[in-house]
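Tokens in:
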């Protein structure tokens, strides 16, 4: 066994040495398979050294590599560092992608989000250069495989849609997705048809917070204290975060005072009602993201997958039975961040 290990180590070092002697190829030259062959020859120690990199470009490449292998919950530099320290596993996960064979549209979207307007601009001297070659080649090949109509897709608009917007009921899912894409909390104004809309959200798998029930239990029947209700609301939201479920706050025909009565920073924070602020920066450690203020040690004990990280699929939507005029009159004092919500009014006749 000792001789076999020694032979393997010698072979690995020989591969790395031969790779170092080759003239480094430029971006756009190698196929994904050729680029992956170079990564297969990398020494684990090279990745381990990259864990200490202070280069923004190298950190960018390693975060992109996290997205490449399918990581979706934590694409931060801190998580990339941890992966580099477990270098053999990280390299193995890269090679399991079979030269980008398993890249999906979601993976590409995550990489695009990390890149933003930046470019991969490493020099061949960088320890991360071969990783960048693999990413570039795999992304290039994936884009080639798109149907013609998707290859020439127009660039997404730079500015969000204008809200309020008036729609037919059948357009609701599309408009909710649009609001979520712009990291907006949607306020669905149902104009007397909240019951039908609420039924839609129930059948769509949303975890519901019923404002009427909250009001009845605490202020009318007085069976639950405000403090206990805050804990109940915390548990419902954390359950949704754990399992990637969307949350639906059903206001019905009420203006329950969530802002003044039920919001509390460590239980049910004000920013819960502002999607972008609540989720925080996906590249930041989970402890620095606002949603994590709701999470307890007990919650982490049975957290599935990447512990403490918000699962994909979470979003928050509010419905009201009011019309737009009444919503603007009564809800700003009831709902935190009302002014930042994407108001989607449903045409009453479209419910039929």
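Residues out:
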């Amino acid at each position: 066994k000792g001789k076999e290990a020694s032979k393997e180590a010698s072979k690995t070092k020989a591969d790395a040495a031969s790779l170092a002697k080759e003239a480094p190829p430029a971006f756009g030259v190698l196929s994904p398979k050729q680029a992956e062959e170079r990564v297969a020859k990398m020494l684990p120690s090279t990745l381990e050294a990259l864990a200490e990199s202070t280069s923004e470009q190298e950190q960018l490449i390693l975060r992109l590599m996290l997205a490449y292998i399918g990581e979706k919950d934590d694409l931060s530099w801190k998580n990339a560092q941890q992966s580099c320290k477990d270098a053999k596993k990280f390299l193995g996960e890269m090679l399991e992608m079979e030269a980008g064979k398993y890249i999906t549209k979601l993976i590409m979207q995550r990489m695009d989000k990390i890149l933003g307007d930046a470019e991969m601009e490493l020099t061949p001297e960088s320890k991360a250069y071969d990783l960048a070659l693999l990413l570039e080649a795999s992304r290039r090949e994936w884009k080639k495989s798109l149907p013609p109509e998707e290859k020439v897709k127009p660039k997404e608009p730079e500015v969000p849609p204008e809200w309020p917007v008036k729609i037919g009921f059948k357009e609701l899912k599309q408009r909710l997705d649009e609001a979520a894409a712009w990291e907006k909390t949607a306020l669905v104004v149902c104009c007397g048809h909240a019951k039908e809309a609420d039924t839609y959200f129930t059948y769509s798998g949303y975890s519901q917070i019923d404002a009427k029930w909250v009001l009845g239990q605490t202020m009318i029947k007085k069976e639950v204290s405000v403090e206990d209700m805050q804990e109940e609301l915390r548990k419902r939201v954390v359950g949704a975060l754990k399992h990637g479920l969307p949350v639906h706050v059903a206001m019905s025909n009420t203006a329950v005072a969530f802002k003044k009565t039920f919001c509390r920073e460590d239980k049910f924070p004000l920013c819960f009602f502002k999607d972008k602020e609540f989720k925080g920066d996906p590249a930041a450690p989970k402890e620095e993201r606002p949603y994590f203020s709701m999470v307890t040690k007990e919650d982490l004990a049975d957290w599935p997958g990447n512990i403490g990280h918000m699962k994909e699929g979470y979003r928050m939507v509010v419905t009201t039975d009011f019309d737009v005029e009444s919503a603007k009159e009564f809800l700003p004092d009831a709902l935190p961040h009302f002014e930042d919500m994407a108001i989607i009014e449903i045409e009453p006749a479209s419910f039929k």
